[in-house]
Amino acid sequence: MTKSRSVATKMPGVGDGAAGPDESLSFANEVAARPGPLPLRATPGAVLGWAWMGGVLVLACLRAAKIAVFWRSVARGRMLPENRLMRALARVKSELSIRSEVPLVVSSGVSAPAVAGTWAPRILIPAGFAGAVSDEELHWVLRHELGHWKRRDAWALGLLEWARIVHWFNPLVWLGARAARLDCEHACDEFVMRRAPSAEACAYGAALLKVLGVVGGQGGSPAAVGIFENKQQLKRRIQMIAKYRTSTSWSVVAGSGLLAIVAVLALTRPARAADTPKPSTVGDTVTTSAPAGWQKNGERAEGYAVGLDRSQPHVKPVSAYIKSIVPDAPGFGGFMQSISAEDYRGKRVRFSAWIKTEAIERSANVWMRVDGLSGLGSRVLAFDNLQGRAPKGTTDWKNYAVVLDVPNEAEGIYFGFFIAGEGQAWFNDPKFEIVDQTVPTTKMPTRPAKRVPENLGFDQS
């Protein structure tokens, strides 16, 4: 009995330090009472933080996608730039003392001239744009875009775009970025005007309006700094151009004021289609581009302005004008049109108009030319431009005419107006008509085509 009782005292859990049933229950309650990890709670700060991060991520992705689509569109529509465009770029680079290589891309995926690319900016020109503007207007556009390139505006506006993304919740940042983009255009306008002769303020403003007429508008892209964003912005910029010029020379005050009127009145009209540009108007009185059906031309056309002027009526209520816009205007400038000679072969035609002049330095001219074909291309068959009888100085309205025969081999007839040197001339009631043989021709002598070769041995200097 004693030995059995001794074995019982050695059973596990009894007398050997192990917890009994009551002690185990107490330990379990103690463990359960210990504090565990705190549950996650959606505090206002956490919610705002996640919302901010989500907004940044979404806007950054949208911006990246928009830029990718933009560059893909540019790449798909890319084509070789015209020689005329590259020559104009080289000339403007020389004027601005830019020696670095400036990449120029012509693409149908671009809606308007722009500078794009943060780290490697390049000039983007829409396909067909160079052919729709004059040499003078093309030079103004390239001066503006090279101003953006030289000022590194694409890089600066890229930083502004990221500021809008990071501070997407702050409307003041968005408004500030928009204002900075507009100020960037004003600064670039000043960059151009500061390097241009004072007499060319109107020409620069008119070029901006012509660009609006050609492209019709510009789609915004965070990757590009365009020549304008919208019509209202362009109106304000032209007003700023006028304000800038009034502080430099009283001789430009009238032209600058006129330019401001152009912006206010012309830009309130409906947007024009890109493939049918029309003249811009100044209070329904003066236009700043060639009349419909005519095109600006000339040896140095960038030194002259053309358009319509309702303040100079005569036989008809509207006159066309040509005026010099640079001192000592070189060459000549004007506007013209051409027609097929098919309906006029074997006939005599007359082109006439009333002309009024003001301080014309060399001449104001009506002209006409009849061309045929030869083995080397076109050949002049008949030509006259009032040589020896053209008005100059200041004169009142007088009718002038050129009369030419149209040979049976004629292919085209070209006619128009031009002035040479400084001054201004108005042209009213132009007429193109068939006349009988009693009306004498005014044909200037033309050099006949050679029938045999000459100086084949290079022995004549």
How would you describe this protein?
By secondary structure, the protein is an alpha+beta fold. It folds into 2 domains: 221 residues, no CATH class; 146 residues, Galactose-binding domain-like (Jelly Rolls, Sandwich), CATH 2.60.120. 37% of the residues lie in helices and 25% in strands. It is built from 11 helices and 17 strands. The chain has a 5-stranded mixed sheet. Strand 13 and strand 14 form a beta hairpin. It is elongated and about 105 Å long.
Task: Write a concise keyword list for the protein shown above.
461 residues; alpha+beta; Jelly Rolls; 5-stranded mixed sheet; 5-stranded antiparallel sheet; 11 helices; 37% helix
The averaged pLDDT comes out at 77
- Biggest β-sheet, characterized? 5 strands, mixed
Overall tally of domains:
2
Q: Count of helical segments?
A: 11
What distance lies between the first and last C-alpha atoms, to the nearest angstrom? 154 Å
Radius of gyration: 38 Å
Uncertain runs with pLDDT below 50, 5 residues or more? 1-19, 245-256, 262-283
Strand order of the largest sheet: 1-2-4-3-5
| Element string (H = helix, E = strand) | HHHEHEEEHHHHHEHHEEEEEEEEEEEE
Estimated share of beta-strand residues = 15-25%
Topology record:
Layout (H helix, E strand, L loop, with lengths): L1 H7 L12 H13 L10 H33 L1 E2 L3 H13 L8 E4 L6 E3 L5 E5 L2 H4 L2 H17 L1 H14 L4 H24 L6 H15 L8 E3 L4 H16 L6 H14 L14 E2 L3 E2 L7 E4 L5 E6 L9 E6 L7 E9 L7 E13 L2 E12 L2 E8 L8 E13 L4 E11 L3 E12 L26
Parallel strand pairs: 2-4
Antiparallel strand pairs: 1-2, 3-4, 3-5, 6-7, 8-11, 9-10, 10-17, 11-16, 12-15, 12-17, 13-14, 13-16
